[in-house]
From TrEMBL:
Protein's recorded name: ABC transmembrane type-1 domain-containing protein
InterPro entries in the record: ABC1_TM_dom, ABC1_TM_sf
Signal peptide residue numbers: none
Domain named ABC transmembrane type-1: residues: 1-114
Keyword Membrane: yes
Length: 133
């Protein structure tokens, strides 16, 4: 679906875009979808079921106080984890931008090798790729 959409875009779009960055963004997007589905199916849903069952057993065997303590402890952990993840996201975003920039320079330089080898920009490109990494 993504590739058919990209092929339908006009030539002006392809000439003004960095192929390397676009390639890396598409790859990161497919990996993210796979990761989200895997985490949801194998981690989040079973954990919610387990917490519900444990709270029910605690409420039945020892009273609702223990079930509430367990639920509040887990909720506190979830809030802390989400806050820490939000804080960490800004660093991850900066890292992804740097990765896109270095990938764009590397792939675009390989795709446009003939044009770059005929000009004096090859040394400038090498310098840019080293500063992006």
């Amino acid at each position: 679906m993504v590739f058919s959409h990209l092929h339908e875009l006009d030539l002006r779009y392809h000439l003004s875009r960095q192929t390397g960055a676009l390639n890396r963004i598409i790859d990161r997007g497919s990996n993210a979808i796979n990761f989200i589905l895997t985490v949801t199916v194998f981690n989040i849903v079973p954990t919610i079921l387990e917490i519900g069952m444990v709270s029910s057993i605690l409420a039945y065997k020892f009273g609702s106080t223990f079930a509430w303590i367990t639920s509040v402890s887990v909720a506190t952990y979830i809030v802390f984890t989400l806050a820490l993840t939000q804080w960490r996201t800004k660093f991850r975003t900066a890292m992804n931008k740097a990765d896109n920039a270095s990938g764009a320079v590397a792939v675009d330089s390989l795709l446009n090798y003939e044009r770059l080898s005929n000009t004096s920009t090859m040394s400038n490109l090498k310098f840019r790729s080293m500063t992006n990494i």
